């Protein structure tokens, strides 16, 4: 126990109960300075031990002036101060210190000492750790916003946009005054009506009215509303019930009563208010007319009824009747506008489900379903049905007609499919005779190869082929048409060209010849196309003929030719003739076919002969290895899978790797993709407006980040994006001045932008 | 139709969709009629890429007028057209960017102007200098006959090296011997943080979590603070000193620091034991950086006389800017509208660059905008194709930098090779494979 600590101890004690006994604790300190530490010691002894004995102390002085802190030493070491000694005095103190006493007693029981306080460094370390964890959890609240922004399809900066459109005046200018007379007038008007200018939700009048409405009133109002609702539902139920009554008589009676009542009213109205009555009458007349109009060309008219009766005997009447009904049908039919989509669908065989493409099984020829014949197309069965019907089930006919509608839809769909299938088949057939000899040979080989293939595969292949041919045909078709048009155009152009000299005529003649020779290069296409001429009477070939589809003649646009054109034309013609002369002897088609055959042969796997002559038998000049050996050591390679261009006469597909091409291709799968197919798919889907509609293209090409010109992009604001759970968030310890009011810069018009 | 066109040109409010409706010609989008979509788009993408490179002219202009190297710059917080710059001779200039003219010159300090920051409201700005003072200036030019004087001056005990202002409150932070938080109304710091005895080179407020701060100290460390706490939060010691740092303005917990070891490091403040990304490409110490206001990219200025633009998660730069006359770039800023970059360099010039080198400036017509978007999309779509990649990535570098780069590459390569060899020739598992990111942090306290 050092003296200083002792002093501290006593001081602490002083602090604990200052009001207890002011007399006891200062007297020993009155010792003079000269006695030094000894005095301190006695002080301690005196202070602690005799505390309980001495009761009165009269002297009092300041300790600090007389006892120097330097003179304190550890004299009283080894003598322990006991709490009980200190407490002895306490027992005689007043009751208000009971609590303290109790605490002290508890302290006495505890024997172990308190731990030393942590060093400053360690304390700070802990503080830092706690603070860091706190702030990092706080910052982590941004995580969702950050990920959302990262994944957003498009981010428009500034994130919080000013609302577009006109702003209220008080948002734009704060200190604004009405100056012009008009403004003053408006404001005075607003002022008169107590219209609030800043937050115009409710005027004071409205607010007052709201306030005036008491609870009772509200209750009454509610009751009224309830009653009204109940009544309404009751009437509704009643009306429903009445409507459901099937009895004709009932309705007749009802309607009659209504009519009577109405007439009565009308008569009354005639007497009281003729003008209104006239209007009512007009209305009635209009209704009647409308009804008549709707009944027009039906069999309910007088004439029609008479014809029905006559029809039993008179053929002419029956015909007239039928015409009438047909007219009705025509008139009442809903106009069907053929949309583009349907046409497209018709042209695209890909869009069809597979089962439709399957060739029909040759089943019962008598069964119209199995033959795929449909009611409307093959009129025969339908008619026969109709013939049968009247005899058997005439009364049910009406109902059946109603049922027919959905059926018809289905049939139409099936018919469409059927048509497409036939179209394809016919095209296949149309192509077959075209194939040249070589191709035929190829095809024969192919057929042999195909025998091994499964049936399904075959079908698929053929379907694919059919598709291709269909496509090819369509591509070829416009070519023919174009050439035709060109010829026609040339004819027209010829008229424009002025012939000045003989040379010109000669040139023209050359041109004509050239035009005759011209189609040579496009021989293959012509070959195939010419073999399937669009003969209209044969059902097999169904190539869309524009002249059939387009009933209206296209407008011929006459473009005035510039005089330069003549010269150009001449030059061009010369060139074409030169080119033709140069390639006169070339047969491109046969060359191509030769090339293809050669390629095919090259790619065929060769038979490897591994026989070693003289190995295991006699060898020498004129001696051949035995047949057995030859057969054994000849290795026949497995046949390659069929070539991809096997069935494509005009195409060579090379499956070799092309080094020149590889320089343009992606060799490694880029990062976000996991499979090559994914990457290929993204590359294959075009984004341009050549392949997409305008809106789709705009969506596809929308940029990820959009910024506005001249707009300051502020850092993302906490108030806008993170909702505070506890609104009374801890303010920073710093004392902020009035300038902090400026901090709330966000104008009231700001609102959160939704992403 | 001509009259309609003219009217449309006049009224810019008409959206492109209306124009589309007016001039739409029915088209058949049947894919069989438009074959070869991939090759055609590839060609378009290739052309777009080539054109991008052809039109890549990023340099817009330079602001000339300082009489010493530019040491610091600051953006006006409310106006795009005003720039503040301080030079090494204590001179401070305000620039009008559209006119590219200096509108005001102040002899602010004796010695360097070490830091400038504009107040959040844009009415005034603060400067610190070598003369141990913090000065507050009015943003408006004094009237005729009035003297150019600071609104207030605070005399500090030690030199200040940097300053930054709070995003919303009237407090600012300076750094020097300690990091001090000041109240604008008081002449002594409200709080001062120190951790050991070091000097700090840069202090920055977090613009999002506005009570957070970060500073770069000369003991190679980065220290994080919270204004509300009594002690600093965390300290990362790296292998070499960081010069400056910048917080991401859109993602609260990311910051990037520019380091003396030629690299930049992006840290997540919650996980400081390793940087999230190491951005390498510079060939000399990186002196400054600034985030784009969209938080997607940042620009860095280096002692190697170049500016580079990095994507926030890209290990290598997407763009490099340099000119023949530009010397060591000391400071760099990204304009608040995400369009321009400003760089201040040793040879007394401030340069204005486009953030996107090939971007067309000014208003774009709707069709132009659409074409631009389409081209961008195509470039993005075919970016992995080698030919496009080669063209898109090609940049010109001055010979010196090119050589240094090659040298550096070789050095790094040999180091990597050695590491590999060490691993290869030692007992499996005895030499751990250390990722590049792990190599640069020495200690986290």
UniProtKB/TrEMBL annotation, chain A:
It is found in: Nucleus, Nucleolus. Belongs to the UTP14 family. InterPro entries: SSU_processome_Utp14 (IPR006709). Residues 731-743 have a biased composition (Polar residues). The keyword Transferase does not apply. It comes from the Eukaryota. Its main location: nucleus. Residues 399-411, 435-453 have a biased composition (Acidic residues). It comes from Denticeps clupeoides (denticle herring). Residues 383-398, 412-431 have a biased composition (Basic and acidic residues). Signal peptide: none annotated. Keywords: Nucleus, Phosphoprotein. Residues 1-20, 337-465, 518-540, 719-755 are annotated as: Disordered. This is U3 small nucleolar RNA-associated protein 14. GO terms for biological process: rRNA processing. GO terms for cellular component: small-subunit processome.
From TrEMBL, chain B:
GO terms for molecular function: ubiquitin-like ligase-substrate adaptor activity. WD repeats lie at residues 63-105, 279-310, 322-363. Pfam families: Sof1 (PF04158), WD40 (PF00400). The keyword Cell cycle does not apply. It is found in: Nucleus, Nucleolus. It comes from the Eukaryota. Signal peptide: none annotated. CDD domains: WD40. GO terms for cellular component: Cul4-RING E3 ubiquitin ligase complex; small-subunit processome. Its main location: nucleus. Gene3D superfamilies: YVTN repeat-like/Quinoprotein amine dehydrogenase. InterPro entries: Sof1 (IPR007287), WD40/YVTN_repeat-like_dom_sf (IPR015943), WD40_PAC1 (IPR020472), WD40_repeat_CS (IPR019775), WD40_repeat_dom_sf (IPR036322), WD40_rpt (IPR001680), WD_repeat_DCAF13/WDSOF1 (IPR051733). One of its GO terms (biological process) is female gamete generation. Keywords: Nucleus, Repeat, Ribonucleoprotein, Ribosome biogenesis, rRNA processing, Ubl conjugation pathway, WD repeat. Belongs to the WD repeat DCAF13/WDSOF1 family. PANTHER family: DDB1- AND CUL4-ASSOCIATED FACTOR 13, U3 SMALL NUCLEOLAR RNA U3 SNORNA ASSOCIATED PROTEIN. This is DDB1- and CUL4-associated factor 13.
